[in-house]
């Protein structure tokens, strides 16, 4: 079951399954935000934006509207 990256709870791990390339900055793709890579939600900013993720051992802050364009599958 695919969910948006913003639906993860703190500490949850998932695998990226789909990325809307037209809405994702090239820099995020270069940093490993690609299908098949592991992602973990580390923290959410106090006002709910941005989200702070660990994507393939890189720590990345992603705006909420961008994170909504990334689909993941939860790890069991």
Automatic annotation (TrEMBL):
InterPro entries, per the entry: Fe-transptr_FeoA-like, FeoA, FeoA_core_dom, Transcriptional_repressor_C
Molecular-function annotations in GO: transition metal ion binding
Domain of life: Bacteria
Iron recorded as keyword: yes
UniProt key word Calcium: no
Pfam families, per database record: FeoA
Domain Ferrous iron transporter FeoA-like: 3-74
SUPFAM superfamilies the record matches: C-terminal domain of transcriptional repressors
Keywords for this protein: Iron
Name recorded for this polypeptide: Ferrous iron transport protein A
């Amino acid at each position: 079951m695919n969910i948006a990256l913003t639906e993860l709870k703190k500490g949850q791990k998932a695998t990226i399954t789909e990325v809307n390339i037209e809405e994702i900055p090239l820099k995020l793709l270069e940093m490993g935000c690609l299908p098949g890579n592991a992602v973990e939600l580390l923290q959410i900013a106090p006002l709910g934006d941005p989200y702070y993720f660990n994507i393939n051992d890189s720590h990345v802050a992603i705006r909420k509207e961008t994170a909504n364009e990334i689909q993941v599958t939860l790890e069991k």
